[in-house]
């Protein structure tokens, strides 16, 4: 290689490096992640995965990097949800760390849960009995829907509309109530059940109640007892 050729090659190499290029066959330097692995963030992700494991549909979790930087090192971070907090939507997860210098921080996260839910197929009026034929399925993010939205047709079994529900509106458990099974003054069979026996008597219901609810019943001898409504004409004495 002549001196003139070597000088030209050196100038070309300097131009490549000055432009931020790399030599052929060599890899650029690896850039460090702006959010290196954080044990607290990892603990929050795992915690939310457990919290959403029993929900219908598919959950997607995104933990927001804390604006104040990483939390102090903690060998065993303990995530928790504040009382009454929902595990989906915009979530603020608390993290405790015990030790010589205990601390508590809150980490923000966004949890989406895409699942089937149900809307009213027609206008429903108060007192109307509800069944699966009155609903149709949709799919969406539960985080953007009312918290009490119906996700399983079995949830409305034996229910009636407590309020007017417009066609196309999400079916919500707080807009439904159980159908009345027994009414005040109604005569019913009162059962007393044990491990190997069953006794029956008659009584009069003192208030209206739905299946599965407790109600007071006056027996023939005048005694008032608490009983569980089994169906429209039978109650079971609570012992």
From TrEMBL:
It is found in: Periplasm. It holds the Pfam family ChapFlgA_N. GO terms for biological process: bacterial-type flagellum assembly. This is Flagella basal body P-ring formation protein FlgA. Belongs to the FlgA family. SMART domains: SAF (SM00858). It comes from Cupriavidus basilensis. Residues 115-177 form the SAF domain. Involved in the assembly process of the P-ring formation. It may associate with FlgF on the rod constituting a structure essential for the P-ring assembly or may act as a modulator protein for the P-ring assembly. Gene3D superfamilies: 2.30.30.760, Antifreeze-like/N-acetylneuraminic acid synthase C-terminal domain (3.90.1210.10). PANTHER family: FLAGELLA BASAL BODY P-RING FORMATION PROTEIN FLGA (PTHR36307). InterPro entries: Flagellar_FlgA, FlgA_N, SAF, SAF_FlgA.
């Amino acid at each position: 290689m002549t001196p003139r050729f070597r000088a030209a090659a050196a100038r070309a190499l300097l131009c490549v490096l000055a432009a931020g290029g790399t030599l052929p066959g060599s890899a650029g330097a690896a850039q460090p992640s702006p959010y290196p692995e954080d044990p607290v963030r990892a603990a929050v992700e795992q915690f939310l995965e457990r919290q959403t494991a029993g929900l219908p549909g598919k959950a997607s979790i995104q933990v927001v990097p804390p604006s104040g930087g990483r939390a102090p090192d903690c060998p065993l971070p303990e995530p928790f949800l504040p009382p009454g907090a929902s595990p989906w939507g915009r979530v603020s997860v608390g993290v405790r760390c015990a030790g010589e210098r205990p601390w508590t921080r809150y980490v923000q996260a966004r949890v989406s849960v895409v699942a089937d839910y149900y809307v009213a197929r027609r206008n429903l009026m108060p007192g109307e009995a509800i069944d699966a034929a009155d609903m149709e399925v949709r799919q969406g993010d539960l985080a953007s829907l009312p918290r009490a939205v119906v996700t399983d047709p079995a949830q409305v079994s034996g229910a009636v509309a407590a309020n007017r529900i417009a066609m196309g509106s999400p079916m919500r458990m707080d807009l439904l109530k159980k159908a009345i099974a027994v009414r005040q003054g109604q005569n019913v069979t009162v059962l007393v059940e044990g491990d190997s026996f069953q006794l029956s008597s008659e009584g009069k219901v003192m208030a209206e109640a739905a299946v599965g609810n407790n109600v007071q019943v006056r027996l023939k001898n005048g005694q008032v007892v608490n009983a569980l409504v089994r169906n429209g004409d039978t109650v079971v004495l609570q012992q």
